[in-house]
């Protein structure tokens, strides 16, 4: 389950931020997750609960904002919305698409003390 390693990556980010910014507790983490990032949100929430035990983020809440996917259509020469990979262009129904947005996962903000 790759959500477990994603959750571990988040905890590493939190720990290095804690050193830089001198905080000791994380109360809330706000994550941005792209619709095309291939992340199962339920699995990520579960993994996050598990990996934050005994860490500075134990018991902290996880807020997830999803970011819509988008792709560039070479036939239409415009950027179009894309709900998931493998779907055709919503304008021309073609498949000359390159995914350009909604693939990332990042920590957007933290509430700390
Ligand atoms: Zn198109």
UniProtKB/TrEMBL annotation:
<feature type="binding site">
    <location>
        <position position="89"/>
    </location>
    <ligand>
        <name>Zn(2+)</name>
    </ligand>
</feature>
<dbReference type="InterPro" id="IPR020538">
    <property type="entry name" value="Hydgase_Ni_incorp_HypA/HybF_CS"/>
</dbReference>
<dbReference type="GO" id="GO:0016530">
    <property type="term" value="F:metallochaperone activity"/>
</dbReference>
<dbReference type="GO" id="GO:0008270">
    <property type="term" value="F:zinc ion binding"/>
</dbReference>
<comment type="similarity">
    <text>Belongs to the HypA/HybF family.</text>
</comment>
<feature type="binding site">
    <location>
        <position position="76"/>
    </location>
    <ligand>
        <name>Zn(2+)</name>
    </ligand>
</feature>
<dbReference type="Pfam" id="PF01155">
    <property type="entry name" value="HypA"/>
</dbReference>
<protein>
    <recommendedName>
        <fullName>Hydrogenase maturation factor HypA</fullName>
    </recommendedName>
</protein>
<dbReference type="InterPro" id="IPR000688">
    <property type="entry name" value="HypA/HybF"/>
</dbReference>
<feature type="binding site">
    <location>
        <position position="92"/>
    </location>
    <ligand>
        <name>Zn(2+)</name>
    </ligand>
</feature>
<keyword id="KW-0533">Nickel</keyword>
<keyword id="KW-0862">Zinc</keyword>
<feature type="binding site">
    <location>
        <position position="73"/>
    </location>
    <ligand>
        <name>Zn(2+)</name>
    </ligand>
</feature>
<comment type="function">
    <text>Involved in the maturation of [NiFe] hydrogenases. Required for nickel insertion into the metal center of the hydrogenase.</text>
</comment>
<keyword id="KW-0479">Metal-binding</keyword>
<feature type="binding site">
    <location>
        <position position="2"/>
    </location>
    <ligand>
        <name>Ni(2+)</name>
    </ligand>
</feature>
<dbReference type="GO" id="GO:0051604">
    <property type="term" value="P:protein maturation"/>
</dbReference>
<dbReference type="GO" id="GO:0016151">
    <property type="term" value="F:nickel cation binding"/>
</dbReference>
